[in-house]
Structure formats: structure tokens, C-alpha cells
Amino acid sequence: MGKENQDKVTDEVLIKRALSGDKASLELLIVRHQDWVYNVALTFVGDADEAADLSQEVLIKVITKLDTFEGKSQFRTWMYRILKNHFLNMKRGKHEINAPTFEEFGQGLDQLPDETLSNYSFEVEEKLLVNEAKISCMKGMLLCLDREQRLIYIIGELFEFSDAVGSEIMEISKENFRVKLHRAKKQLYNFMDHKCGLINTSNPCRCHRKTVGFIKMGYVDPIGLHFQKNVISQINAVVDRKVESYSNEVVSAYQKLYQEHPFLKSPDRLESIKKLLSTSSIKETFNL
Does the predicted TM-score (pTM) go above 0.70? Predict the structure, then answer.
């Protein structure tokens, strides 16, 4: 199957073929969606390694439950519902265990000394280090939201799922989804308005002044640059715009900052997943 033809094959067809024993269709289904799962996971937990593990766990659950997909919703919606249940109930990761409140996060930024990057020697360009610090800080802000708020923000504001799809993923009413999304945005953006120099120039906090501190604290890896490796695009270039989106309004500065974050390629965990496909229970499910 050529790439052009692969792109035209629907998820539903791939699922039908996979359940009939077509291993290539199952692998294509995984490859098609793994980057999306990874980028949601990365924004949810703020750590590249943890996000890679989470992505694999979710994809394995999706595979093992694939025979229960009834086609009543889009496959990605169904998949994200599995993701939602996994994310909301999983053990807390290393950044979540001591996740601060917005007040504590702000105090941490205030206490982090301003330092000049040019006083230090790094092999990476300063602008890349500053951008890494900015992304790391903004993803850290998201950890101040509780899990449900964070996921609703990610799917509703960052990736712009409609309230119809968002409510289906979160298994709540559309009205409730909109209310919860509004509350999450209000908390996050109120904090940024009072603390972030990117939003309000009267705020003293500046990314380039805090970058050295972030490096010393281990939040920024000057060699790894976790948030800028394997970039596919920016988030704003890959989202499916809501029908009513921006017809009579300008994108908020807050949302724009988050949507300018890189959309990254997922670490290749297909080989690990292929090992799962060789187990007897999976072979039985997919007639392999």
C-alpha cells in the first residue's frame, strides 16, 4: 500500500482489516495516531520520557480494546476517551507529586534569581535555551491545574476540540464542558496576566533572565532540549479549527502562546508494541 493510498484509508477500514488479521493495517493505525497521543501526554505531564511511556500505555489499551469500537463516534474521540480514563486515574508522575498551586508557582518564579545567559558557556544557541525555558515554564503552569481541568484545557483550548467532541471525550454535558474549560482558562490566564512578562510587559518575569535558573534546577536540559527535538510543526498548524472559531474574534494572546509550542514526533515505540502483538491473547483478538 503506497503512502498516498495509506493516507486515504479511513480509520474504520484499518480497524476492520486489523481485526481480520492484517498486521500492517494495525501498525498503520498506531503510527497515524501515536504523535497525537504523545503530544497530549507531553502537555499533560510536562516530561518527555514520562509522556513516551504514557503514550505507549494508552496505545496498548487502545489496541487491546479495539474489538469493542462500535463506530458510534470518530475513532480519535473514542481513543481519547481511553486516554482520558488512563490519565485521570494513573499514578502521579514525578512532576505531579509535588505540583504547586498557582500561588506557589509564582513564588518560585519570584525567588528564582535573574541571571545573564552570556555569563555562562553552553554549546546550544541562547535563543534555543530561552525558548526551552519558556516552554518548560508554560507547561509547568499547566500542572497547577487539577487533572480534569488540565485535560479539558488541552483538548478544548490547545487542540480546539469542539464542545460536542470534548464533552464526549470527558463524558460530561456540552454545557459542563464549556463551564469547566472557562474555569481552567480563567485560572491559567489570570495567573499569566499577573506574572508572565510575555503577556504583560509590566510583569518583571522574563524568560531569558530565568533560563539559567531553570537549567540549574534541571527543568531545562541544555543538551537534550526535550521540547524542541523532532519537531513536526507547531500546534496551531495541526489543529482542526472549530467551525465557529475566530469568525468574529481574535485569538487570545494566551492561547496563541500555547499553540505556538512545537508539535513533536513521538519516540518510536512501535517495536515495543509489535512485541505485544506477538502475545497469544493479542493474536487471538486480531486473528493473527
Answer: yes
